[in-house]
Amino acid sequence: MALVQSCAILPNFSGYKKQDDKASRIDTAVSTTSYQKLKDGARIDSGMFTVLIKDEDYYFGIPKTAFDKDFLLIHKVSSVPLAINEAGVNKGMNFENKVIRLMPRKNGKEIWVGEYDPKVDVKHQDAIAYSVADNYRASFIESFKVVCYDADSTTAFIKVNKVFDGSEKSFLDVFANLGLGTSPNKAISSIEQMKSFDNNIVIKSIYSTKVTEGNASIPISISVTSNIYGLPEQPMRPRFSDPRVGFFTTPRWYFSDKQQELEKRELVTRWRLEPKEEDRDRYLRGELVEPQKPIVFYIDPATPKQWRTQIIAGVYDWQVAFEAAGFKNAIVAKQLPDTVSFDPDDANVSSIVYAASSQANAMGPSVVDPRSGEILEADVIWWHNVMTVLNSWMRIQTGIIDTAARGNTFSDEKMAHAIRFVSSHEIGHTLGLMHNMGSSHAFPVDSLRSPSFTEKMGGTATSIMDYARFNYVAQPEDGVQVITPVIGLYDKYAIEWAYRWYDVDTPWEELPTLRQAIEKHQHDPNYWYGEQQDSKNVVDPRAQSEDLGDNAMLAGRYGLRNLKRMMPQIIEWTTVKGENYYKAGKLYMGGIGQWYTYADHVVNNIGGIYLENPVLGDGKSAYSPVSRATQEEAFAYLEEQVLRIPSWLFVPELMTKTFPLRDSPAGVFEYAPYNLQREFQYSLLYSLVRDERLLRMIEMEKLFGSEMTWTAMELFDALRKVIFEGTIQKKNLDLDTRMLQQNYIDVLMVSSNKTMEKINEKKIQEVNALLTAVNPSLCPWHEHGQTETRLRNVHVTGMARTSDMLTLKRGELLRIYELLKKASNTGNAATKAHYEDLLLRIGVTLNMNN
């Protein structure tokens, strides 16, 4: 089978019909004599296009050979003001890339720019190619008048100011893309610099506007570097993705005359790594060879010197994975002398960019050739304040077992070690890897307490692409030393799967070999890929963020042991004589947030479904329920840690000095402990009985029966027994018990009352914002510039209001109503008033008082 060619590179936008060479039809009435006048006194830069700069005017000299070629228009943020820096828009961020083509029109008097989505492929010799060309044509987005041609009429000159100085939005609508909803002010927007290279043009512009918030108008100026990048004449041979290995992808549709159905594929996003021609026989014999073109990252000279060595080490960590794919020295990182000019926004340069910002984050986006999935260039964007997150994680998760991870400031050596882990993780994204949130599930929980196991396997998971942070399971007496994630078995396997070179002509020929590579490990949990899920609606509890081990309940209990040890030491770890308790309050909030994280991991086992991507012959099921024994174990944990919140979380000695604190744009928020306890408990209860979870439980009961899975009715019975134990026994209820009953009844009422749904949504959003501030996620999946097209969503929400879910909730409210009526005249005054209030709430919600 010959490699198919994209209809996007057919010679005409309007259809697949034989055409004359457009260059030969240029109308010489467009004067070439004016070229001499144009270039007199101008600065000229030669490259892919000629760049001619005269006074304040900028011109492209486009050779005829560039017509109808594929170019990638790339935009990167180069500098920003404080106002949007603090909103998370920073140097290095890439947006609004588009594939364009230039073509002469009106007998060469104009050049039009067409934008197209090169998703569709077709073999030129097939009859359907004519229809594909007509039905998937490009759309024109801009036109330029030809000012003149050069002396031999081979190069057309156009003035390009309008698309780079804020006059037009056809090439870039910067403020819309950043969510500001305004337009550039032309008077204070301009082109700053333009330079031509062999395969791209780099244009630097500044765009200015004003954004109104309330009664204030804020000036915003953003520097943007645009690249017009010449895509390879011969696209890289693509590799078809498989949902069992986690890579970013780009879509491709294949048409042919022989089909009875359109073939839709996803192409793996990866670098073009190929052995040199003279080394191919050695490579195929299994020898390690250097690639024809290695992956090279440059370290931004703005990076503080004490971190550079370990950031570079994080890049070199991936060499062992590429060796599994047959390549040595496949990925390297280089420092540039401070005296060398460095432009990280040049699309020919892959770099690790250091952003001075209060944002605590990092990310690894890449620029991709959508025709083949080839990564052309990538950057790691490293926000300065990411170290505050690393400090918080290490203190809370490992401070008890690691005395070097307790202070407000770590030694440079300690922080550099953590920075290396983040560097490796983000480089993984630039190689095309998505998060593998299931890799931590491969390790039995107790193995994380073993020095020999953690030394052998490395860190906390089989993949550094998990959010398996630091080893919170290990106890002080265990002596575990390797507590930080590293490149693991899955990472080496995934890189080999995506990057091993095969001597074939088409991606279809690789498929049997690629499938065999997966089948070799298909029953080994060390190589399982668990895709990232919506953190607010986790379906498969094996693939969660921030968890460790194969049993969330056991891991959580080990984590709580260490957390309980830490709480009395917070002031000692954070405060010296003469200082206030601000840092103690911050660490206190982080500790409570960690308690919540453990509980959240446990909640997601209830109503959970194990998800697989089975193929015929592997013996796997696409859907299977979490066992009833595991769900009952999860409930026992929640009864102990959420329905009866442990008193050690709220240390009186600490609370007399500081409440839990959170920074915000409006200043420091101080959270009164009872209020915080109420909000966190409410959030967990809401998650526990949320509609989607109950509907999944109903589905699993119907498919597998109550012998194999825990039912929604059993969940409600268990909750009522615990939450209303004191009521059934006619005891006086303390404040914590009254709070628990109020929270539970409130979350049950939400589905029965639309007004309450809206109020509840706002309440949950506030809690989620607090949790995000306490435990931010680095490089969230949606920030990588590509969609996680394989993100699975088990759809159970259709017609939810007519399902058993609503019946169950209303039935539970009625049972509680009858229970409260019987107990309404028992207990002390506070207990009776509490019952009266709950009866009134339920009665109003269910219209029982009319």
Automatic annotation (TrEMBL):
Pfam families: DUF4953, DUF5117, DUF5118. InterPro entries: DUF5117, DUF5118, EcxA_zinc-bd, MetalloPept_cat_dom_sf, Zn_MMP-like_bac. Residues 92-276 form the DUF5117 domain. SUPFAM superfamilies: Metalloproteases ('zincins'), catalytic domain (SSF55486). GO terms for molecular function: metallopeptidase activity. Signal peptide: none annotated. CDD domains: ZnMc_MMP_like_2 (cd04276). Residues 409-728 form the EcxA zinc-binding domain. Residues 35-79 form the DUF5118 domain. PANTHER family: PEPTIDASE M1A AND M12B, ZINC DEPENDENT METALLOPROTEASE DOMAIN LIPOPROTEIN. This is DUF5117 domain-containing protein. It comes from Sphingobacterium corticibacterium. The lineage of its organism: Bacteria, Pseudomonadati, Bacteroidota, Sphingobacteriia, Sphingobacteriales.
